[in-house]
Specification:
heterodimer; A: alpha/beta; Aminopeptidase; OB fold (Dihydrolipoamide Acetyltransferase, E2P); 2 domains; 13-stranded mixed beta sheet; 4-stranded antiparallel beta sheet; 6 helices; 17 strands; about 20% helix; B: alpha/beta; about 35% strand
């Protein structure tokens, strides 16, 4: 059943509505069911989660009798951003994932954020799906704040991703949806996969398999679920960053999610005006390229790749 | 006056971006003034340009105190200003959310690091900045509670109000916050314009800075010393929100004294012109902030009011 989580009037004959679809067992609910919430569309240019929302519900409806808990699907918590191809919140130029937990008495985005938190609070697990941005391609991965490591890692291992990155705590990240939910004891996993403004069906299918595995473990799904793959698990110290030293046009020489050795050719930054190579980029470490620049134009400092040792 | 390039960013498609600092006097790094960090902060750029002009005259007349120096950085984001964009021209990140910066990081982290290295050794840091919501303020000094803030020093600007609020997680990467952590006494000054030039409030802000520097013994400058500033804590302000969306017809201005029950604004139906809502003052007070956009969303804070008794 489609429900409106929060609605705000726009100036000219329109309402901004954050909606969710709630799937419940055929037998109805008695209040004791487990609840999984799938949230995406926080950034208007991240679309990978849209396919996941569709495909998850399609598969559930194929075997609806196997649903034993509640599935809440929130495909767009920044609907104006998705519709206008805007990463932030149009009209405010705010990053929606920096305003949580929001405030009922605050600005319109903060008000919406507070209502979203209210609605998600109490979920057995929340999956917060992101898709990198238009600049970088990511393999399916889960990012966990080290403060939540013990509670989230067992859940993350079920989600069938390739990689789990346990990262250091940063104060600025305390304004994210995931942090805000985790501190109120609503376990929330952040998924990053694919690239902005695109849908990578393969990654979406992989994550949906994982969501079924997690739902089965939580007692929300009684049907078959694929065996999740064993992810690589690492911490910050094992990740090397490669940033552009020059501006220009980046042309990769490696494939995403492939092994490289120290000194291997990662790619070149070209100068289309002079026909010269501004910078030849070499791998700083042995490892696997789990993040790779997708958008060709780079400035000094633009992230080119991340390598997992 | 010494003009110096603090940081330079090379680009294949554009002229290099040069962040310039203008220094006056010789000696201790006494005060640093930073203007536009966002591409639409035209008022902030204008104020800095006027300060540079004044400091030139003061320096020429020997009015920068011996052993003191002042630096003005009019903007750290000329790339975005030149294309009319608020945030960073390519990835839309906010340089004022990247401090203290990181030399090996992403572009805006490098810019922040390049700037911070040049501004973090000053005794006083003054930033002209803007609010994320569109609107006008009573000119004021804004501070975050960091444990390092000094309200008494902030009152030396002589602006009507010193506003202090709790720091939020996303504040920890602003210039102001990092200045304070690195032991610079930092102040943010808000005037009542951002993407246009309001000469009256710009002059008020310029006078406030000159008055402050005079009181701190950095320059010799006679001027009206302004107000005895009143401290307002962030949680003391009362938000007045709109229940409905529509065309915003405002009757109350910043600094207006309002009484409980006064009509501050009306919301009109954008098609029929009918008044759909009246925005009523919930208490006696002074308008500290009002929204200034012609059409508004529902749930938008339209006014922020400083409560007063106002029995007369």
């Amino acid at each position: 059943m489609v429900e409106t989580v929060v609605s705000v009037g726009l100036p000219i004959d329109e309402k901004l509505m954050i909606q969710k679809n709630r799937l419940i067992p055929k037998s109805g609910i008695n209040g004791g069911e487990k609840r999984i919430s799938i949230v995406t569309g926080t950034h208007g240019d991240e679309l990978e989660g849209q396919y996941v929302c569709y495909e998850l519900q399609r598969r559930i409806k194929e075997n609806y009798n196997c649903l034993t808990g509640i599935v809440d699907v929130y495909p767009a918590i920044n609907p104006l951003g998705i519709d206008s191809i805007t990463r932030g919140i149009p009209g405010f130029d705010l990053d929606m994932n920096r305003i949580f937990p929001g405030s009922e008495n605050g600005s319109m985005p903060e008000y919406i954020a507070s209502k979203i938190i209210d609605d998600l609070s109490g979920s057995t697990t929340v999956i917060d799906i992101h898709a990198s941005n238009i600049f970088l391609e990511e393999i399916p991965q889960i990012r966990i704040n080290e403060l939540s490591r013990d509670s989230l890692l067992p859940l993350a291992k079920l989600l069938n991703v390739d990689y789990i990155w346990i990262h250091a705590s940063a104060t600025v990240l305390e304004s994210t949806l995931a942090y805000s939910l985790n501190v109120i004891d609503t376990p929330t996993l952040v998924v990053e996969m694919g690239v902005g403004m695109r849908i990578t069906k393969k990654y979406g299918d992989q994550l949906v398999d994982g969501i079924f595995a997690l739902m089965k473990e939580l007692g929300i799904w009684s049907g078959d679920a694929p065996e999740p793959k064993n992810p690589i698990i690492s911490e910050d110290g094992e990740v090397s960053f490669i940033n552009a030293g020059k501006s220009g046009v980046f042309l990769p020489a490696v494939k995403h999610w492939k092994n490289v050795k120290t000194g291997d050719h990662i790619g070149d930054i070209l100068n289309p005006l002079t026909g010269e190579i501004n910078e030849r980029i070499l791998a700083p470490a042995n490892g696997i390229v789990f993040t790779l620049r997708e958008y060709p134009i780079v400035s000094e400092g633009s992230l080119i790749a991340r390598i997992l040792a | 006056m010494e003009e110096r390039i603090l940081f330079e960013l090379n680009s294949v498609y554009r002229d290099n971006m040069r962040i310039k600092g203008y220094s006056f006097g010789e000696g201790d790094n006494s005060a640093c003034i930073v203007g536009a960090t966002r591409g639409n902060e035209v008022q902030q750029l204008y104020i800095c340009s006027q300060l540079i002009s004044i400091f030139k005259q003061l320096e020429h007349n020997g009015k920068i105190k011996y052993g003191k120096s002042v630096m003005v950085v009019p903007t750290i984001n000329s790339y975005s200003m030149n294309i009319g964009k608020r945030f960073w021209s390519t990835d839309n990140t906010d340089i004022n959310r990247m401090f203290p910066g990181y030399y090996l990081g992403e572009t805006t982290q490098r810019i922040a690091a390049g700037v911070f290295e040049n501004v973090n050794s000053y005794e006083y840091g003054i930033q002209f900045t803007s609010f994320y919501m569109q609107g006008d303020f009573i000119p004021h000094v804004r501070m975050m509670k960091t444990g390092f803030e000094s309200i008494e020093l902030a009152k030396d600007f002589g602006l009507p109000y010193v506003f202090r609020r709790d720091a939020k997680p996303y504040d920890t990467t602003t210039l102001n916050y990092n200045w304070q952590i690195w032991e610079t006494k930092a102040f943010s000054i808000y005037t009542n314009a951002t993407d246009s030039i309001d000469i009256t409030s710009a002059r008020e802000a310029i006078n406030a800075v000159l008055s402050f520097l005079n009181k701190r013994g950095i320059i010799d400058y006679k001027c009206h010393e302004g107000y005895i500033s009143q401290l307002i804590e962030g949680n003391a302000l009362v938000n007045v929100k709109s229940a409905t969306a529509g065309v915003f017809i405002r009757y109350a201005n910043v600094d207006s004294r309002v009484k409980k029950g006064n009509v501050l604004a009306e919301i009109m139906d954008p098609y029929t012109g009918e008044a759909t809502d009246k925005i009523i003052a919930p208490l006696n007070g002074i308008v500290f902030f009002h929204a200034n956009q012609p059409v508004i969303y529902s749930q938008t804070p339209l006014f922020r009011i400083i409560p007063t008794d106002d029995l007369i």
